[in-house]
Design brief:
Helix 7 runs antiparallel to helix 8, helix 9 packs antiparallel against helix 10 and helix 12 runs antiparallel to helix 13. By secondary structure, this protein is of the alpha+beta class. The two termini are 35 Å apart. The strands form four sheets. It has a four-stranded antiparallel beta sheet. The protein has a three-stranded mixed beta sheet with strand order 1-6-5, with helices on both faces. It contains 16 helices and eleven strands.
Length: 393
């Protein structure tokens, strides 16, 4: 069974840019045909879609916090550090990362759960109330997939920049004190390119996430409403057009799926996921001669990306092809031996082959590489289980 790849934007541990480049206004590309299918996704009951105001809205408790801690004459970077302390300190919000927590600012604040988009929304809402100089930033991380049930989800990353007002030039700060508000504490470890994005693009990402979540839950009517809105809020956000194509494909509207994929690629020629999904669709329709050059191009582009090999390993593991999974995990580790997820995958695969000794060795390596306490605790529990299994064996 062919499994579609979804584009879902959320935080990536350990992957964070610390360089910015000026965001250039993209040439507006509008579809030449109507890519919407309203008549096919009519809801039986009204669907509430969060408005921009609801997404960023503060309540009295949040406004009181801003007044008490951020309404002062301190430099912006000091205010940003106070805000960071309040968001992450155990005595205050103690916000926790959850990839599925694609929520509003108020929900993140009170429920203490957020993904990177929701953290960025929360931090923006609080900083904006304090009249701080802030910008959204999208980080161009390598393609990175995670599995959610039978689907592979492609992730992305965003964060918030707080910049001194007198050090800003055309939207970008040079040589100024910049504070990044992000779930990733290892800001200086990576140097991925990044760009400042508009509030409208961040909104499109939020709606795109909600649409992808609804698709995974097989709620296609809700997914359509969110994805359509994402493309309307920012019609240059290629990922939303690609996800709309996936929705059409899953719903059996192959012609519209192909048109949406091709428009996503027209908007962003580097959207390899839409290109890959187009190739899957062409193969499904028996149009192998059209699909083959796309597959060759995609493979040449991705072959040096360790996360691509991890994706292939995850697919092989899901299909119980454990020898193939081992080969791909080892290739991913050969390209990048600092990612704990690769060693976790290796450990799981060895376990399925009843090779508890190598599974335990791989889990130990994963533990040494993880940088978050929650993940480390989870891995230690898995390691203890493996030790018990090896003793029992």
């Amino acid at each position: 069974m062919i499994k579609p790849s979804y584009i879902l934007l959320f935080c990536l541990p350990l992957l964070l840019a610390c360089q910015s480049k000026q965001h250039l206004e993209a040439k507006r590309i509008l579809p030449q045909i109507n890519l919407y299918q309203d008549s096919q996704f009519q809801p039986q009951h009204p669907i509430h879609i969060e408005t921009e105001q609801e997404i960023f809205q503060l309540d009295d408790e949040m406004r009181f916090m801003v007044k008490a801690k951020l309404k002062n004459n301190l430099p912006a970077y000091k205010k940003a550090n106070i805000l960071l302390e309040h968001i992450f300190n155990e005595e205050n919000i103690s916000l926790t990362y959850n990839s599925n927590a694609n929520v509003t600012a108020r929900s993140a604040y009170h429920n203490k759960l957020a993904n990177c988009i929701s953290l960025t929304i929360l931090a923006y809402a609080l900083a904006d109330e304090a009249d701080m100089n802030i910008s959204f930033q999208q980080v161009d991380v390598p393609e990175y997939w995670v599995r959610n049930g039978q689907y592979s989800l492609l992730t992305g990353h965003v964060n918030l920049l707080v910049i001194e007002r007198d050090a800003r030039s055309q939207g970008i700060a040079f040589g100024s004190k910049i504070t990044r508000i992000d779930f990733d504490p290892f800001v200086s470890k990576r140097n991925f390119p990044s760009k400042v994005i508009s509030k409208q693009t961040l909104l499109a990402m939020f709606y795109n996430n909600k649409g992808a979540e609804a698709m995974v839950s097989n709620n296609y009517t809700v997914a359509y409403q969110y994805l359509k809105l994402a493309t309307q809020v920012d019609n240059q956000f290629s990922s939303a057009w690609g996800n709309l194509g996936i929705l059409y494909k899953l719903s059996g509207y192959y012609d519209m799926a192909e048109k949406a994929y091709r428009h996503a690629i027209l908007v962003d020629e580097d959207n390899l996921t839409s290109l890959a999904n187009l190739a899957l669709l062409l193969n499904k329709q028996g149009r192998f001669n059209e699909a083959e050059p796309l597959e060759v191009l995609i493979h040449k582009t991705r072959v040096k990306n360790p996360y691509y090999h991890a994706l292939l390993a995850n697919e092989a593991y899901f299909n119980q092809s454990y020898d193939q999974a081992l080969r791909h995990y080892k290739k991913a580790i050969q390209l990048d031996d600092e990612q704990h997820e690769f060693f976790l995958g290796l450990a799981k695969t060895y376990y399925m082959q009843n090779n508890f000794k190598l599974a335990k060795r791989s889990m130990k390596k994963a533990i040494t590489l993880t940088k978050t306490k929650d993940t480390e605790n989870l891995y230690v529990a898995k390691l203890n289980f493996l030790k018990y299994q090896q003793t029992a064996d």
